[in-house]
Amino acid sequence: MPENKAKIGILETVGVNVLLNFAVLIALLQGVPPDLSELKSQFMLQPNELAQRYYQYAALPANTGSAQFYQLTLKAAIISNQPKLANDIALKLALPKWQTHIDNHQAKLISNLGVLLRINGHYEHAIDAYQCALSLNNGSNNFRFHTLLNLQSAMLHTKQYDEAKSILEQAKTLAENKQQHLRVKINLANYLLDNNQLHQARHLFKAQYRDLSLAGETEMAARIGLNLLNTEILLGNFRQFWRYQNSVRQTIFSIANSNHHYYYHFVIMHSLVSAIQAPSEIQYARFAYAIEHGDFLFEHGQQQSIRKYVEMVDVPWISVQFAEQTAQYERVRPKKTVPLDLLEQYCIAPNENQSRLKSDFDSIT
């Protein structure tokens, strides 16, 4: 995510081991679409394991049931960030024999590739993929809506603010239900935050936090609440930070599923404000300790936000500590390479003939 932004919310994994049962496997082999709703809820708790099961059942016949299973493993491979495995599954599903079993076949595969590219920081290629997916769309407004929002997010990363705003306006015209209108509002607030329009962003975050809390949307309210606290910090409005911090903390505690990454980001912001308002070696040490043990948040897109916090404190030894911490993380967890086979197969070669990509995109907007 861009700097100055608390990007919260990626699925957490817990140690749950779920085996494919015999009935589901028979359904797959017979081409009868199995009821995967329970499998989805269970498998998404451990996406890494589900994705690996592709190799155990890599030779299923082309039918609707098998297609559903492979699409689920593809989603799991993307969530758990396994680019090679995701590419293997996608290339299988790209074969013509699967086209009749997957609605909007090519467009969905390319859009999935865009997500994988975006989460690995390959934003220019992600933009190529989303634009190509839009050009391959079979007329689905729902697909177009979600792909436009993904494209808008990738463009914010590359600081294409005017283009991102235009795309968001297009998505707004396609919103058909309450959830989609909410997505547009959240993306608009994030756009304002990224574009340093902090007062406008704060206004939207406050309204969204109130509405989501009243609606009982606890986890989404927690994410927006953290964004609200982050915005107050960036504005230097610490009185408002203290006004909302207890409510946001209680919202985080109310999340039914794992909440540790939300809460730890809250802890870092809390220690930051304390260090700024009451500077002392004790407060600095507490802030340094918090960020030292918070590098797992890098996997949730928090590295740039924490770097901004370190800059705000502006204590040399903390800056050195954080620089060493991020360098170590990048050595251990380097940015992953994402195969571009699908982009080359269905779209033009990446980074070549950009004017053609722009023309294709303009033709569908």
TrEMBL record:
Cross-referenced PROSITE patterns: TPR (PS50005)
Xref: Gene3D superfamilies: Tetratricopeptide repeat domain
Name of the molecule in the record: Tetratricopeptide repeat protein
Keywords of this entry: TPR repeat
Organism name: Pseudoalteromonas holothuriae
TPR repeats: 107-140
